[in-house]
Amino acid sequence: MAVTLVNPEGLPKVDIYRQVSIGTGSRMVFIAGQIARDADGGHVGEGDFAAQVEQCYLNIGTALAEVGGSFDDVVKLTVYLVDWTPDKMPLFVEGVARAAAKLGVTPMAPLTGIGVAALAEPDVLVEVEATAILG
After folding, report:
1. CA distances from 36 to 3, 6, 23, 56, 97 (A)
2. What separation, in Å, do the N-terminal and C-terminal C-alpha atoms of the chain show?
3. Whole-prediction pTM value?
4. Residue pLDDT tens, the chain, 135 long
């Protein structure tokens, strides 16, 4: 495995992801921000934050599989969240948990969540990009 996930002593423990990842592979993979669209470009989860989070993560999984990887190879996730407020955290966690169950992965790599005013299309509530290292 090219990625080791760690929760260092002295940092908060978070159930759904780890604070640090160590990549030792030889191929870096950068996955463009994924939004809640199916393979045909159809909208998924319109107005449903948790469903959009889930679809974004599933799309990342699809992209990883195409290059011979999986979420086990992800070293960093960046999540863009429209009109983010802390009360949305349970929906975010729900979406991640549903995707993780379908993908068979837990915990997730470190992530940075960034609140934004809007994304590329008006119905898009979340976008997720990933960096992975494959051995």
Report:
1. 26, 29, 28, 5, 16
2. 7
3. 0.90
4. 688 988 889 888 888 888 898 888 889 999 999 999 999 999 999 999 999 999 999 999 999 999 999 999 999 999 999 999 999 999 999 999 999 999 998 888 999 999 999 999 999 999 999 999 998
